[in-house]
């Protein structure tokens, strides 16, 4: 073996790198163990301990802090740690409208609406759709008339063509997405998430964000969707507004009709000797109700809104000076807003005044402060905007209270100086300036002195989290276009812990199954393969840690599956060694020849799976990418460990004159003298496959289509754990009573009878900010009628536009993989019949898996749902088929090489293909059984979250083996009939 020294050097170097990468996990484990021991179950103490260790060196020798080490350990995905991921969509429609200064032109706005509708239906390029739609509505229209504004004059001339406008909008759209990514990244970093995962979804206006460990959904949504439109306003003082509020109160009192309460009517009836006469306490009830009604009638505004006052030295109540003009309880703020919005009230409020509530309730209460903002410009813009802020730092003031120090740009500092000078001009009546973020007053400090240098401190009733979020948002600035969450996925920590337990269990059991199989079947050679396998797992984990990959439950499945696939190389080698031994060659020569002849098949089979892994990574997101990452890493390390390291071990054993056995008395004659006529029975196989596909079509029609998950149709899904077994139909009925029977609602068990997966399309098209809360409240309302205790363990939301993109992405992934496989085989084997035969087999496999899913849906005790994970399974199944087909094609090519012929036809070709299939049958069956056993272990012990995914792989493993033996290679005979006829002539 050549290059032994280099291989040893690379193995040692890779081992050191992996050991170093994995050492961070050991260090963080020790620190977190100490934290648990210190806290003794108190989570607050545990968090405080870890916070205190953030800047403390914990890595001996390197001096790395806990925070640095924590950032270098293997990242756990949502399904293993709990957390939240969201897909943000940057509104290019709003951006387009904003760049044109919000025109009222009917055709312009209709074109925007039409383009958005096409995007919702699966369109890709919003800008191209908008331009196309506008040109349809206004064939001679010039878009430059809308977009060649004063702000855009340098980039777009007044006489620009529509094509120029399209290019301009495309550039602005790309820039907006890039800036939004930067802003969102800044916000997430400031949120304190360890190892967040953010990706721009190329070719779309979406950004995927994954935040392991985050559970505060409302805070995340507010942080990500907030426009962060910082404004600085002058404000009215209390005494300037009280008269207007009194006028509003009087006007409302005059418009309220006199209505008599039921209690009052009942009391009147009783006093007249009616049926209710004789009831006690009637007069008291009447008096109490009357007083309350009188207060509301006479003071409709001041019954829910209080004017701030204080007791003066003379004992009289006086107006409290300052910018707070009123107070109201939290439950009444919406009522106050509604009163201000009444048509008869709007004319009373001056055009230079608008009301805004404070950010938080007053200390220890649920009372919110109301401010009156002073609008001084004709266009209604603030005196100063967020663009004036250059930086913001969270810190503490002189009283050690959290605050934010804000730094202005040079232009901003000049305007800020003017504003603060005006506010502090009257020493007897210093004014306040309201610092407003998204129409909420964060602080309204009274300006004591002019601020000339542009450095200010924002303080108030803030917590440390408030100031972190505020400073982070101020630094990030304003989003260039509105961003909204179009899909989200939340996993509770308990569900994550269950996934960890089940994932580790499946990993250990599957690993033991593989080790036992190899040792029992291949004897001493099997132990060499096991050693290479252990080294391979170490390399996989080390490489994942080194690259900062996110480990998910499908990722663990990918590792376990890689373990099963990695033995394929050893099986190929060992079976070829056994063939050489059967020919009477020595062990040393047989090993050398076995490695030599197996190498072509090993390279081809691994390359095909690797290509599929890349396609999965490109087209998938989240868990699919986790699976693809570990699959690709595992294939690369498997080739190194199974081929090179195992060869080194064999060389070492041979040098020591050690005996090496590749079988035992039971396995020695396995798969010998097999001569099955696969080609002769191919039409029977065609018939079996056709019958299954036709049956699948029948069930497809009967079931009304495939059981599509929310990935493919949109909706919300919740995983709910009950304290007792539940009847799914009963729960569905109670939820439909709340959601409405016209909404699609599904309730299925998620592994056990007391854990249900609830899917609904209720309010899925609702774009309101509180839509998620509305649905969750309806869910709780319906579940509360079951009479059982329950907890919401996690959930997901996918809007229809995202779902349509996933569908088209899935189609693209499958078609693209077929094209790539065809090209690869065409290049490798230079026969289009081989490539086409393999692609036909791939489509055959997809149709069979879909048919089995359709036939068995509702029969099995778990949901056979078609989602993103299913597409990953389909592509992996295609990889199986390709791997096994390529091995057979390699044997055909090798045999042709031995005979010196380019190709053969007729009966000679039939015999050649049968020979190739039979001679590789041992490898095909052994590899299939190995992978099948691994998948079976994951299916049983791997947890409910991937059971449907693994079931698809199990079926696919069987179908892939059947397809490679009975379809993909035999069909080459039928595809080559014309060539055969020409050869005969």
TrEMBL record:
Pfam families in alphabetical order: Sec_GG, SecD_1st, SecD_SecF_C, SecDF_P1_head
Domain Protein translocase subunit SecDF P1: 177-235
Gene Ontology terms: biological process: intracellular protein transmembrane transport; protein targeting; protein transport by the Sec complex
Keyword Membrane found: yes
Highest rank taxon of the organism: Bacteria
Keywords: Cell membrane, Membrane, Protein transport, Translocation, Transmembrane, Transmembrane helix, Transport
Ranges where the Protein export membrane protein SecD/SecF C-terminal domain occurs: 484-647, 784-977
Lipid bilayer topology: Multi-pass membrane protein
Keyword Transmembrane: yes
Domain named SecDF P1 head subdomain: residues: 378-481
UniProt-recorded Gene Ontology molecular function terms: protein-transporting ATPase activity
Subcellular location as annotated: Cell membrane
TM ranges: 503-522, 529-550, 556-577, 598-620, 626-650, 684-701, 806-827, 834-855, 870-889, 925-943, 949-973
GO cellular component, one term: plasma membrane
Oligomeric form and interacting partners: Forms a complex with SecF. Part of the essential Sec protein translocation apparatus which comprises SecA, SecYEG and auxiliary proteins SecDF. Other proteins may also be involved.
PANTHER family: PROTEIN TRANSLOCASE SUBUNIT SECD, PROTEIN-EXPORT MEMBRANE PROTEIN SEC
Family: Belongs to the SecD/SecF family. SecD subfamily.
Function noted in UniProt: Part of the Sec protein translocase complex. Interacts with the SecYEG preprotein conducting channel. SecDF uses the proton motive force (PMF) to complete protein translocation after the ATP-dependent function of SecA.
Official protein name in the record: Multifunctional fusion protein
Record organism: Pedobacter insulae
């Amino acid at each position: 073996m050549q290059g032994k020294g280099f291989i040893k050097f690379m193995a040692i170097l890779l081992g050191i790198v992996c050991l170093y990468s994995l050492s961070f996990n050991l260090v963080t484990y020790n620190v977190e163990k100490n934290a648990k021991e210190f806290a003794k179950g108190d989570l607050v103490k545990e968090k405080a301990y870890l916070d205190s260790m953030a800047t403390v060196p914990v890595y001996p020798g390197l001096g790395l802090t806990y925070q640095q080490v924590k950032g270098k350990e293997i990242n756990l995905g949502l399904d293993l740690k709990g957390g939240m991921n969201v897909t943000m969509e940057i509104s290019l429609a709003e951006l387009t409208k904003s760049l044109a200064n919000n025109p009222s032109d009917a055709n312009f706005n209709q074109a925007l609406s039409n383009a958005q509708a096409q995007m919702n239906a699966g369109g890709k390029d919003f800008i191209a759709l908008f331009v196309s739609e506008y040109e349809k509505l206004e064939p001679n229209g010039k878009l430059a008339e809308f977009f060649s504004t004063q702000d855009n004059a340098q980039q777009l001339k007044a006489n620009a063509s529509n094509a120029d406008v399209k290019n301009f909008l495309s550039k602005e759209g790309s820039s907006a997405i890039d800036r939004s990514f930067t802003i969102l990244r800044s916000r997430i970093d400031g949120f304190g998430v360890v190892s967040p995962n953010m990706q721009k979804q190329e070719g779309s206006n979406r950004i995927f964000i994954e935040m392991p460990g985050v559970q505060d959904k409302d805070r995340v949504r507010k942080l990500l969707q907030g426009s962060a439109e910082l404004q600085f306003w002058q404000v009215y003082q209390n005494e300037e507004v009280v008269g207007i509020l009194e006028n509003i109160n009087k006007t409302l009192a005059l418009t309220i009709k006199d209505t008599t309460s039921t209690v009052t009517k009942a009391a009147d009836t009783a006093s007249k000797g009616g049926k209710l006469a004789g009831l006690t306490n009637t007069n008291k009830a009447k008096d109490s109700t009357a007083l309350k009604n009188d207060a509301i009638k006479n003071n409709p505004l001041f019954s829910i809104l209080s004017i701030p006052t204080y007791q003066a030295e003379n004992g009289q109540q006086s107006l409290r000076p300052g910018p707070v003009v009123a107070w109201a309880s939290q439950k009444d703020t919406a009522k106050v807003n509604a009163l201000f919005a009444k048509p008869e009230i709007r004319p009373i409020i001056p055009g230079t005044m608008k009301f805004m509530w404070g950010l938080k309730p007053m200390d220890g209460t649920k009372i919110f402060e109301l401010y009156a903002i002073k609008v001084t410009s004709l266009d209604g813009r603030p005196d100063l905007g967020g663009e004036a802020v250059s930086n913001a730092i969270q810190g503490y003031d002189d009283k050690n209270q959290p605050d934010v120090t804000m730094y202005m740009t040079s232009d901003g500092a000049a305007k800020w100086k003017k504003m603060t000078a005006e506010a502090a001009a009257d020493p007897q009546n210093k004014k306040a300036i309201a610092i407003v973020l998204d129409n909420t007053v964060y602080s309204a400090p009274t300006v004591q002195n002019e601020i000339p240098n542009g450095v200010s401190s924002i303080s108030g009733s803030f917590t440390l989290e408030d100031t972190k979020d505020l400073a982070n948002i101020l630094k990030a600035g304003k989003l260039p276009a509105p961003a909204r969450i179009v899909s989200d996925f939340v996993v509770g920590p308990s569900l994550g812990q269950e996934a960890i337990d089940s994932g580790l269990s499946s990993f250990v059991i599957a690993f033991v199954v593989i080790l036992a199989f190899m040792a029992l079947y291949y004897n001493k050679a099997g132990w060499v393969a096991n050693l290479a396998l252990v080294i391979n797992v170490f390399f996989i984990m080390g490489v994942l840690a080194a690259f900062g990959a996110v480990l998910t439950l499908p990722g663990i499945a990918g590792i376990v599956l890689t373990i099963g696939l990695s033995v394929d190389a050893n099986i190929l080698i060992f079976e070829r060694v056994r063939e050489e031994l059967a020919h009477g060659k020595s062990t040393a020569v047989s090993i050398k020849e076995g490695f030599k002849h197996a190498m072509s098949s090993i390279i081809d089979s691994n390359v095909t799976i690797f290509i599929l892994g890349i396609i999965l990574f490109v087209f998938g997101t989240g868990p699919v990418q986790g699976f693809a990452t570990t699959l690709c890493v595992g294939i690369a390390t498997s080739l190194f460990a199974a081929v090179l390291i195992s060869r080194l071990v064999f060389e070492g054993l041979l040098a020591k004159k050690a005996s090496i056995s590749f079988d035992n008395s039971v396995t020695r004659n396995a798969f010998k003298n097999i001569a099955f006529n696969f080609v002769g029975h191919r039409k029977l196989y065609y018939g079996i496959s056709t019958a299954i596909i036709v049956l699948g079509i029948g069930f497809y029609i009967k079931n009304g289509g495939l059981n599509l998950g929310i990935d493919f149709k949109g909706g919300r899904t919740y995983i709910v754990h009950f304290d007792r077994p539940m009847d799914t139909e009963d729960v569905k009925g109670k939820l439909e009573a709340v959601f409405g029977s016209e909404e699609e609602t599904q309730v299925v068990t998620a592994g056990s009878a007391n854990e249900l997966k609830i899917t609904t399309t209720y309010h899925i098209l609702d774009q309101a900010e509180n839509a998620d809360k509305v649905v969750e409240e309806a869910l709780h309302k319906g579940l509360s009628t079951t009479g059982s205790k329950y907890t919401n363990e996690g959930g997901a939301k996918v809007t229809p536009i995202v779902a349509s993109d996933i569908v088209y992405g899935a189609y693209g992934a499958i078609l693209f993989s077929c094209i790539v496989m065809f090209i690869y085989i065409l290049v490798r084997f230079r026969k289009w019949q081989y490539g086409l035969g393999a692609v036909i087999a791939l489509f055959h496999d997809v149709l069979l898996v879909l048919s089995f899913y359709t036939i068995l849906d509702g029969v099995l005790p778990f949901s056979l749902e078609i989602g993103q994970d299913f597409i990953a399974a389909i592509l992996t199944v295609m990889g199986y088929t390709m791997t096994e087909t390529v091995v057979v094609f390699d044997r055909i090519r090798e045999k042709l090489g031995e005979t010196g012929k380019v190709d053969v036809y007729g009966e000679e070709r039939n015999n050649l293909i049968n020979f190739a299939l039979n001679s590789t049958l041992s490898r095909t069956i052994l590899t299939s059984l190995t992978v099948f056993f691994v998948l079976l272990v994951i299916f049983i012990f791997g947890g409910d979250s991937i059971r449907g995914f693994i079931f698809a792989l199990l079926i696919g493993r069987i179908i892939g083996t059947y397809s490679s033996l009975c379809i993909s290679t035999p069909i080459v005979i039928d595809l080559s009939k014309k060539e055969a006829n020409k050869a005969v002539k």
